[in-house]
Predict the 3D structure of the following.
Amino acid sequence: MIPFSVQETASACGGQLAGAADPNRLITGPLAFDSRDISPGSLFCCLRGASRDGHDFAARAIEAGAAAVLADRAVDAPAIVVPDVIAAMGHIAKHVASAYTGTVIALTGSAGKTSTKDLLKAILEPEGSTVATHRSFNNEIGFPVTVSRVQSSSRYLILEMGSRGLGHISSLCQIARPTIATVLGVGSAHIGEFGSRQVTARAKAEIIRALPAHGTAVLNGDDPLVAAMAGDTDAKVITFGFGEDCDVRAEQIDMQRDGRPRFVLAHGASKRRIALRVHGRHNVVNALAAAATAIAAHVPVARVAQALRDAEISSGGRMEVTTRPDGVTVINDAFNAGPESMLAALTALGDIAGPHRRRVTVLGEMTELGREATDWHDQVTDHLIRIRPAAVMGLGGDHIDRVLAGLTAAGLAAAKATGEKPLVEQITNLLRPGDVVLLKGANTFGLEAVARTLAGVSVT
């Protein structure tokens, strides 16, 4: 964190000092809302959860090295007391961002934000110190934490922005205004909350409208709703995609035998052959978005291409592919599931398995799709019938029941998980040496931890 005194921090968020807080002590570490994440000089934020109250951990946070705590009532610790802790976190992050002189880059989209952020970070880190959103902490709590991690010496600050309604992204941009803003696509994730793709597009466009005139908008040129956002800004526009008119394009795309894509990265007269280390053909567009954003930040194409060849997705649960000693390949894409990402993961399963390996899928029902839920689950059914997995296990309610019924009618082995045995045991009973198994579903099903256990990766 850019250092500020306890008093200056309190003034930034309208707080009052309590608990013998030293007004001159410097806060040098980032905001933290988990007492296990305290670093020396941090400001511990006392949030109230469903089962625990952060105020009960205030004294422990100070013992762990926090300079003070941010609370909505007096506690047995040096504190900045405010009416609303979450709102105060935003005010403090805004104060930090106002003192930061590096490049602020913001990303949004219905799918692929976190993967693109990880790829972009891999490109930018060789260019200079880079701070980026941890995993997908992109809401009103995680976003201020990321901003607070920036240092005066940081060259880039990459901020992933999530949205569940109009005005959400706009409020994040008021905390940290981007000079480069990237929109990946407008899909159907959370459409039950937005109501339509057009409303989703309006929400995503808030990131573009926040740009200054000297900034750069990086837009998916293949998505009409995103491409139209060029009219929402006076900033420079760079497009990416597969179309000939896109400024940053992918050409000559093919798949390696293990399901990793290769393509030619084209920008102007420059063309660079890239074999990605990440799996799934859908990651080509994420790589393009990362490349176009880095180019907007003035990274030469040659260095962009070299970094992409070595880049990996560091956030778990996203095309995390592990092959066990028995030859079983576990595809952990279970962090979450929207319609487009579900279909992309099923395509990746087919690419990774190839024509000779058995395919097994463990699918959780997709959520927050509103009136389109039935149609999207039917599309999943049709896709599964095309790739013909050897076995399908489903989790969820009526929609997954409909998927399984459709698969059974098509002659595929499909059944619902039961509560009689641990899920890992049920999946293991479906597998044979050499199989490829995909785990994908809404985050509420907890399939990410199951996939890690299945792959032999310890869960922390």
Notes: Residues 118 and 313 are 5 Å apart (CA to CA). Residues 100-310 form a domain with the UDP-N-acetylmuramoyl-L-alanine:D-glutamate ligase fold (CATH 3.40.1190.10). The chain has three domains: 4-82, 100-310, 320-455. The longest strand covers residues 248-255.
